[in-house]
Write a structure and sequence with these properties.
The chain has 245 residues and is an all-beta fold. The chain is built from no helices and 16 strands.
């Protein structure tokens, strides 16, 4: 009896392939690049032995320089953010990216990547108006002006709630601020002779107010509030007859 050891050398005779043509990846815009977070992508399948297959991984397409691919978690590939954090307000989609896997015989498999950048409440509202002084007749009632702020975040993260900052309760009978629109109304004349108003006035006829614009969504920090000062100058109208004695 003769024993013969036969070793069969594996050849790269199978083509590698991705199981799906494309993949969706969602990445929050505040992902910390220092943490080297791995977004998993299934690797190619290939019947040949891993020693036989030597692959080169390459990411191409518009925006591909933002990301890199490495093969570190089991069979899965990792997509990582490279050097600069993502910003949804700058770009929210990377959907023309291709992952190309090339073997030694220059045979390629490719898969399309759709990366969607998810919003985080990382912007403060900013007031669009810089109107800080308004003169108004003491008898006026109605809409005075609207204070509009803008917040580039998405959905509730960009929704703004307006309110007064440090507001004396006594003023609620005179002033109303719509917290959705930022429009300010005088609902009762600011008569300079009103006993409720007099203690709140500066220089006899100035009301100093602060309008606040706050993001509605979950706040990441207390800096996500904007303030707008308003000096309301109440003009006296000669509405009292001279008191002749
Ligand atoms: Ca192969
Ligand atoms: Ca941002
Ligand atoms: Ca915001
Ligand atoms: Ca944002």
């Amino acid at each position: 009896i003769i024993f013969v050891n036969i070793t069969i050398n594996d050849l790269n005779d199978n083509l590698h392939y991705f199981r799906s043509n494309e993949i969706q990846i969602h990445i929050p815009e505040n992902t910390n690049i220092q943490h080297r977070q791995c977004y998993r992508i299934p690797n190619v399948d290939d019947k040949d032995l891993s020693e036989t297959n030597q692959f080169i991984y390459e990411l191409i397409g518009n925006g591909s320089e933002k990301f890199e691919i490495d093969q570190t978690i089991g069979n899965d590939l990792c997509l990582r953010i490279k050097n600069h954090p993502l910003d949804r307000e700058e770009r929210d989609q990377y959907d023309h990216l291709w992952l190309i896997v090339t073997d030694k015989q220059q045979q390629q498999a490719k898969m399309k990547l759709h990366i969607q950048v998810l919003d985080v409440n990382d912007n403060s509202p900013k007031f669009l108006t810089n109107l800080t002084k308004i003169s108004v007749n003491e008898t006026f009632t109605g809409e005075l002006t609207c204070f509009q702020a803008y917040d580039p975040d998405e959905g509730n993260n960009g929704r703004i709630i307006y309110s007064f900052d440090h507001f004396d309760d006594k003023l609620t009978q005179f002033l109303y601020l719509n917290n959705e629109t930022g429009c300010l109304f005088i609902i009762q004349s600011l008569l300079l002779t009103s006993i409720d108003l007099i203690p709140l006035l500066q220089l006899n006829n100035h009301l100093l107010l602060t309008i606040r614009a706050q993001a509605y969504g979950p706040r990441m920090s207390s800096t996500l509030t904007a303030y707008h000062p308003l000096e309301l100058i109440i003009e006296d109208i000669n509405d009292h007859k001279p008191n002749i004695q």
